[in-house]
DNA sequence: GCAAAGATGTAGCATTGCTACAGGTCGGGG
DNA sequence: CCCCGACCTGTAGCAATGCTACATCTTTGC
C-alpha cells in the first residue's frame, strides 16, 4: 500500500523492528515535525544511531529511502497526527481538543477515501439514477445522516424520505415498490432493526443500498454495500467520525446523480436556490 | 503564512513570476504529483529551464529551497488539489466525483481549522460547561447539525433540545431562562428566522452561541460567535461543506465539555454505551 | 564456549541541492 | 541607431546530503 499513512505504519510495525531502529521509530512518533525538517545526519544524531540505521528503518516501514520517507511523513502530517491525539486527556485545554479532533477527522476521511470501493459506488449511482423514489433509513447518529440525505432530494431529483419514527420506518419499508430504492445507513451494520428494515425493503421489491462502516451482516440484505471504513478507535470520548464519512459519501452520491440529470434539472435547481435566498436578509437585521 | 496551501500560492503568484519561472509553475500545476517525486534536475529538464531557475521559483513562492518546496507540496497534495476539482463537470465519471469531493472536503476542513478562533471556542466551552440546559437552533442543512448536536447530550451532560418545527422553536427560545444556553447554527448567518430566534433567546436571559460561516449580522445577537470559514464556492452542485465543518465544531465543543466533567460523568457515559450495544446482533442476522 | 546468523557502525562514493558568476536579453536615453 | 544599464537566465563549481559496501560487534543455538 503506497498511500498508507506512514505514521500509523511506524506505530504498528514498531514491535517487529530491531532495537536501534526502534529508537528511530520512537523519535519519529515523539516529534514527527522535527524529523520532517531534519536531515538524515540530524535524525541519526538525535536518535543516537548511525545513518545507515535510519535508512534501514525507512526501508522497514516500506519506504525506498530517507527522502521517500520524509515525503510520506509530510503527507501524513498534513492529514494530522493520529498517533498523538488518539488519547484525549482530561487535562487538554480546548485548543488541544481543536487540533486533535480536526486531525482525527481529516485523517479518517483520508482513510475512508482510500478504502471506498469505486465499483460499488458506481453501481449505487446507477441504481439511484434509475430510482423513482428514495427512502433513507438510519438510527441514532445515522438518522442524522439519513435526514441530511433526504434534504438533498433536489439533487437526487426524485421524492426522498427519511422517517425517524421506527413504526413509520417499518411502514415505509413495507410499502416500497420495484423501481424505488432504500438506502440503509448503519455504522456497525449490526443494529437489529436496521437489518429487519433492509430485509423488508428488499422483500417489497426495492433495491437496497447500504452505507456502513464494516463488512457486516447488513451487506447480505443489500444489492450494493458502500463500506466506509474509518479509523478504529477505542477512546470513548472520540467523536464518531463515521457519520462525517457517511455524509461525504452522501455528498458524492447526490452530486454524481445530479451531474447526470442534465440541463433542465440544473435549471430548476438554480431557481430553487434563488428562492431560498429570499429567506435571507440582505445586510443587517 | 507558513501553513498556507502552496499549490494555491503558486496559482495566485503565477502572474507576477518571470517568464521561465512561470514554466516551472505551469509544470507544478499541471502535474504536482510528478514534481513531488522528481529531483531538482528532473524538474528543470521537464520545465526546460535551468536548475537555478527552479530554485528561484521556489523562493518566489515563499519556500527556502527546493527541499522545502517539495515538503510543502507534499503537504498540500495530501489535503487534495483544490485547483483541479473546483469545477465538477457533467462528464465526470463517479470515480472523479469521489476524488474531487473528498479533496474538497478535506481541504476545506484544513481551511476551517486554520481560521477557527480559539479564544472564542474557549469561551463557548466555558459557557456550555456552566449551562443548565442547551437548545440548538437551525434550519435546512443547519437543522441536521442541530439535531446531531442534540444527540450529543450525553457528552454535554445536561438536557439538550433541537426543535425542528419553527413554532416550537419560537416557543423554546421564548421560554429559555438565565443559565440556559442557545446554540444558533446558520451558515449564512442571514436567515431572518434565525436572527429572530437569537434575539428572542437573548432577551429571555439565555447566553447565545453562534456557529456560522461568515462574520454576519447574526454575531451581533450573540455572546460568542464561532465563525467556521470554508472555501468559497460558486459551483451550484458542490455540496455544502459548511455543515461538515459545523459538525466538527460540534464534536469539538461536546468533547471539550465532556472532558471537563470528570470521572463520574465518564462512568455513566460508558454504561450508556454498553446498553446501546445491546441493540446489536452479535454475529449474523 | 564456539560458531553462525544477525544487527550495528565506519568509511567512502555518487548525487543532490545550492550559489557565485558570467552571458544574454530587453528597454530607454543620447 | 547605438550604447548603457537593469534585469533575467544559464554555466560551472562546491559543499553537503543520502546511500551502499564492508567490517565489527552482539546475540543465539548447539
From TrEMBL, chains A, B:
InterPro entries: Homeodomain-like_sf, HTH_RpiR, RpiR-like, RpiR-like_SIS, SIS_dom, SIS_dom_sf, WH-like_DNA-bd_sf
Record has Cell membrane as a keyword: no
Pfam family, one: SIS
UniProt-listed SUPFAM superfamilies: Homeodomain-like, SIS domain
Organism for this UniProt entry: Benzoatithermus flavus
PROSITE patterns: HTH_RPIR, SIS
Domain SIS residue range list: 124-263
Taxonomic placement: Bacteria, Pseudomonadati, Pseudomonadota, Alphaproteobacteria, Geminicoccales
Domain HTH rpiR-type: 4-80
Protein name: SIS domain-containing protein
Keywords: DNA-binding, Transcription, Transcription regulation
Keyword tRNA processing applies: no
